[in-house]
Structures are given as structure tokens and as C-alpha cells.
Amino acid sequence: MLIESRTSSDPELAALVVAQQRELREADGGLDGQVFVPHDDARYLVGVLAGRAVACGAIQALGRDTAEIKRMYVRPAHRGQGLARQLLGALEEMALRAGHTVLRLETGSYLPGAIQLYISSGYAEIAVYGEYVDNPYSVCFEKRLPVLA
User: Which domain of life, per UniProt (predicted)?
Assistant: First the structure.
């Protein structure tokens, strides 16, 4: 998979995020109700296979050392091929290059595949934080990135 940086206004990125949001609303019974609002300060990556955007993710700074992973998504037809893990690794590298040594993320308790990906990638569950505090379906994780001396 080719991983490319894209702007928040990229139409292929927008299509991926719309699909992600639709899936999330279906998975949680429509309780989420949130719609995609691009974060101009987020840095987006898109995974491309055979010229087609099939995966996306972003990092958004929460502070000098900490960033949040946002909008992780792989189209259903391409799941189970390790693409999410590859994208997650690229997001971690991007975060390190930007000076972030801690990554946080939120996912839904109704997404066991996502939870397993994060745990198996070294993320530890933490207390729900920020905008997710009042969401009973939120599960949050954190990973300290290894810094090369």
C-alpha cells in the first residue's frame, strides 16, 4: 500500500471519512449522531491500492509532546490485510517527526477489531479524556513512542 499525505479538502479523503462516519452510526445504532468536521490542524494520511484510496488516518496535536490519532478507517473490502497496522505505523512515524512522543486515541467499545489492533500495537487503555468523557461508548488508549537517542 502506498501511503500519501493529503489535505483535509481532498475529495478521496472526504469520501473515506463519510464512509467511516456512516459505518460508525450504523454500528452504534445511530446514537453517535456526529458528522465529520475537518480539522485544519490535523495531518492526514491516505492509503492507496491500485490507484484507489482505501484507508485513512490523521494525527492532531493535543500539546507539544502529545498528539491524537483520528479518523482511522479501512474500507471493508480491504480489511484483514494488515493495512490498518501499516497506516498506524506511518501515523506513529509522522507523529515522531513532528516531535510528539505520546499518542492518544479514542474508539468505540462496539469496535472489537479496532481495540485489538491498538492493544496489539502497544497501546494501553487510559481514562476517557477530552470531548469523549460523556460518551458511554468511548474507549481511549495511549502509547509512548520510542525515541531514538
Answer: Bacteria
